């Protein structure tokens, strides 16, 4: 909800599929970034942001993720 509150369009993939299938789904929809929240990210208050075009992935604070996604 932090992303939505910041005006960032979001879609939550809730199907219980492998991560690779989720990446393919994002590519099909031409989604540029994925926000990945696993147990570790939730515990640390962070989010992993993956750029689908470049494959670059970084783990950052939610505030930093919002700044990255608003660019």
Name the strands of the widest sheet in spatial order.
1-2-3
Q: Could you name the ranges where pLDDT drops below 50 across 5 or more consecutive residues?
A: none
Residues in helix, %: 25-40%
Radius of gyration: 12 Å
Shape: globular
Quaternary status of these chains?
single chain
* Average of the residue pLDDT scores: 91
DSSP E strands, number: 3
Strand content: 15-25%
Give the topology string: H per helix, E per strand: HHEHEEH
Structural class: alpha+beta
Q: What distance separates the N and C termini?
A: 19 Å
Sketch the major β-sheet. Answer: 3 strands, antiparallel
Number of helices: 4
Defining traits:
71 residues; alpha+beta; 3-stranded antiparallel sheet; 4 helices; 21% strand; globular
Would you give an account of this structure?
This protein has about 70 residues and is of the alpha+beta class. It is built from four helices and three strands, in the order H-H-E-H-E-E-H. The protein has helices at about 1-5, 20-30, 40-45, 60-70; strands at about 35, 45-50, 55-60. The longest helix has 10 residues, at about 20-30. The protein is globular.
SSE topology sketch:
Blueprint: H1 2-5, H2 19-28, E1 33-36, H3 39-44, E2 46-51, E3 57-61, H4 62-69
Antiparallel strand pairs: 1-2, 2-3
Structure summarized in a few sentences:
The protein is an alpha+beta fold and 71 residues long. It has 4 helices and 3 strands.
